[in-house]
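User: Hi! I'm a student and our assignment asks us to look at how structure tokens line up with a sequence. Could you show me two examples?

Assistant: Happy to help. In each example below, the sequence comes first and the structure tokens follow. Example one:
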Amino acid sequence: MDFIKLIEVRSELGAGTRGASLGVDALKTACLDKGSDYFIRFDVTEVETENDALFEPSPYAHAKHIDSVYKVERRTSDAVRDAIEDGYFPLILAGDHSTAAGSIAGIKLAYPKKRIGVVWVDAHADLHSPYTSPSGNIHGMPLAIATGEDNTESRRNDPHKDTIKWWNKLKHVGGNGQNVLPKDIVFVSVRDVEDEEKFLMNKYGIRNFLTSEVKNKGVEQISEEILHLLEECDLIYVSFDVDSLDPHISEGTGTPVENGLTVEQAKELNALLISNDKVCAWEMVEVNPTLDRENAMAEEAFDILEYVTDVLIESREKSTRLKLERQHPRNPAELEGYFRTIAEELLEEEE
């Protein structure tokens, strides 16, 4: 469908292991193996990366390659904003998870007055800052960037002044330094958390649906509770890190953690979430074929991607038909964004 735009971000600057930049192409290989036409069905924007910076040592020990990450975040935010403003639903396929801060910034640029909720399906909380990070890898920091959270109360590092300069610039991509309120974050399957991140989760009351809770309650109830928690938000962004999956499925990701979701749980959860009209962007990250055998993770991830996309198309077509039926005479120009795109297509079909 013409209302979806794929945004491909082959960056791995924020990761501690190499190979996530190959994740998008691993998904394309899985697509070919399945005999699917997925990657020729949609318009595509490719975000320019700065991966060559990895060949040079970074002077920023507590936020590695932050100067280059900043450039990629800016480009990612621009790509997401442009897609939304052109009437598309951005479906983002990225390397390491650091670029999610750019995705959120792009939504904020497109909707500066809207309140954005975040569903973070991940093994990790990604709430570190240069003041708290034990590794300096920025893929552990995107939610701190998006919320503008330094967490100096849990300070363990003394970042160089140049690091802080870039960090403050990074936090202001997309807005005034807080694109998302911490209380508007919901975690799913987060299970590898440092004390500094636990501090923030407790401070702001960030809800985490553990894998055991998903299993016991069922995916449908979990999705309902997530949407209830974010009911005061105008828009919702869903970020799916494949390390939320159990490593028994595949270890083709940089930071696998035991006791994750099954493929079926991930499929159904993401599908139920994306069916909600408030969801304005969806993202998949951290497929790393260099850590895998026979592209197993990408095969599973592509199945999730294709299934969730098909549900998105079906749900948006249905909701647009309902919107059109409530309008008399039918007037697609009054609909916003991708709803307008679908409406125009539906009316053309009827004519």
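Example two works the same way, sequence first and then tokens:
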Amino acid sequence: MYEHLDLRQDGDVVWATMNRPERLNALNRKLVEELRDFFVGLYWRRDVRVVVLCGAGGAFCAGLDLKERNTAAPGGRSVGASLTGQRQISEIVIAMRRCPQPIIACVDGAASGGGFALALASDVRIATPTTRMNAAFIRIGLSACDIGVSYFLPRMVGSSVAAEYMLTGRFIDAERAYQLGLVSRVVAPDAITAEAQSFAADMLHATPLGLRLTKEALNHAIDAQGLEATIAMEDRNQILASLDGDFGEGVAAFLEKRPPRYERRES
């Protein structure tokens, strides 16, 4: 049980809700710890195949809780301790990309700073008309290159557009995010849960192994050395998936136009 991260499992899907609505779900130390623990632990879980990440209230995540930071004990920390604290936050997005489960982010309202990073580290993003995302770090005296944003954003929208938003801290609204391909859908706030459920249901048509291998290959293909390296990885994954015990059920379900019934779990 977590204090600020609510988890609800519905079959093979876990709904993870950041629950600090009075602070727009800003990242305090406890929420950082809980997010890191949850996403790191997902690597070993076979009972979870899809994750939906949400924020309670009218915001996704407003980034680092500056109020908590400003009330911390005076005197400062050593460089080493500060670097460790920074890594405790950035480890969340590393774990998000490393975990085998696709992550669907329901980005309703503000997604600033660290919240922007959490959205970018997800696999699919759904927005609402109130969505506002930005690299807020540069507006509070820091570099905009933080928590993986300088890795994710240029790969998604190109270096010029990434520079536009990272050098200025300007907000990306829902319409612009959809134009740039940062989000897959823009829906009304009361429809975002159903949209996430629809994505999750389609993902669950894949075999457990096929879904894992697809996320893994997409991650590696972004940084692959070239076409041949990517195809070699694809060839390997197709053979692994075709030899898995769930492959036959996947084909049968497709031909019979019914939901698949996967009984196997990888050991």
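Here is something you could point out in your write-up. The mean pLDDT is 93.
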